[in-house]
Amino acid sequence: MTIEAHKQRILIVDDELSMCRLVEEVLCMIGFNCTSIQNAHDALEAITTEKFDVVITDLKMPHISGLELCERIHQIFPDLPVIIMTAFGSMDSAIEAMRRGAYDFVTKPFELDLLRHCVKRAAQHHDLRQQIQFLEEKQNHCSIISSLVGDSEVMCELRATIAKVAQSSASILITGESGTGKELIAQSIHKNSNRSKKPFIAVNCGAISETLLESELFGHVKGAFTNAEQDRRGLIQEAEGGTLFLDEIGEMSPIMQVKLLRALEENTLRPVGGNEERSFDVRVLAATHRDLEQAVESGDFREDLYYRINVIQLFAPPLRCRGTDILGLALNFLSQFTLKNDKPVSGISQPAAEKLLAYSWPGNVRELRNVIERAVTLTGTSQITVDDLPDKIINHRENHIYIGGNNPDELVPLATIENHYIQHVLTAVNENRTLAAKILGLDRKTLYRKLKSIDG
After folding, report:
1. pTM score, two decimals?
2. What is the mean pLDDT of residues 212-232?
């Protein structure tokens, strides 16, 4: 990706039409595509609906000043360079402009060559930021692919199931512990669906307050609340024709559960502060680390919403259940981080590999990625050794269930073994009783009865 001036768009904001035309003429002569607007309000609307590479704005304008415009642009698009131009140049103005996010500052009357140079430099800066973002997205895509790679039986079954359900329109609930790659599974479903050309929009329901989540999902109209200065589309509409991924849906408040259920049932939404219903077409994928069946029984999650989002359920297996996939993932991350850090680390020593396989990985793939990045950073050899691993992995001891030997005095009652195994399975599935019951071949009521007897 290289800079080509004739393809880059410049937005010029100045309440004086003559100044707009002058700057347009100067920049169009060197190949830039220019658009002029004579007030900051319309400029803000323009940058939210169109793509620009540089903004040039006058400092003194009625209603919204150039400094205020710069600050708002920086909040919305922090990588979009803004050049402030003014006849009231001073050091204080320059410092304030930079503080509010301006890329550069020029004073009127300005030399035409200086303006051209300033805009070219800003355009190159924006182009570089775009390249960096592209490379970061490419690296993140590599992480997505690597996290679904593996020859373990559970991963082969998961990929086969994804292939079956991707083309359907059914709602899917993805369950599993934190760090197992639930969003990566959702992205894989989207990429293999007939909606793959449309947006994939993800929102973490547990990271946003109830009031803000409603606005984020449904959008709002101008004046709906303080600082709502213009209409804003919600994430559901942003995902139109594509996929909406609701991560950690189990953390959603009861009120939001009601509003979401209504929207999904009727395929319509009403923006915050609005009076009109708006239809939408999205496929909903949801994920949670919680036991939603248990949450339904306790009244923390609506049963009707649960069945609406849980037409098909996929389980993201914990890393400790994926066997030698651990080493495959570790080598994949090793390749990424040796390239990133420009270090000649070619592999993992046998003792270190054994430690990685023996560890229980409570943080799952996310934790493994962190461990390998740390090891690549610290190692001074061509291979990752045991000394490069964290103490918790070096000192980890496997938790085996001991049945006993042949001495009758050492043998234990069957109930004791059963109790130990039930506790072991619960620990392995992070206390998810619904999943534990499935693994143990018990219905949930029987499991609860046994747990009650264990607890005394």
Report:
1. 0.61
2. 80
Phi/psi-derived region of residue 194, left when phi > 0, alpha when psi is between -120 and 50, beta in every other case: alpha
Asked if residues 27 and 3 have their Cβ atoms less than 8 Å apart, the reply is no
> Parallel, antiparallel, or unpaired: how do β-strands 312-315 and 347-348 relate?
unpaired
In this predicted model, what pLDDT tens digit does every residue of 419-434 receive, in sequence order?
777 877 777 776 778 7
| Local structure of residue 401 (DSSP, 8 states) | P
CA distances from 35 to 7, 38, 42, 51, 139 (A): 13, 10, 12, 11, 34
In whole angstroms, what separates CA 173 from the centre of its chain? 17
Decide if 295 contacts 431 (C-beta within 8 A).
Answer: no
Kindly list the structural domains of the chain, giving each domain's residue range(s) and its CATH number in brackets, ordered by start: 5-132 (3.40.50.2300), 152-317 (3.40.50.300), 320-394 (1.10.8.60), 414-455 (1.10.10)
DSSP per residue, 311-325: SEEEE---GGGSTTH
What is the band of 3 on the pLDDT scale with cuts at 50, 70, 90?
very low
Sole residue written with tokens 């984020």: 216
- Tens-place pLDDT, residues 359-375: 989 999 999 999 999 99
Spell out where 66-152 has E strands: 82-86, 104-107
> If DSSP states are collapsed to H, E and C, what string results for 417-454?
HHHHHHHHHHHHCCCCHHHHHHHHCCCHHHHHHHHHHH
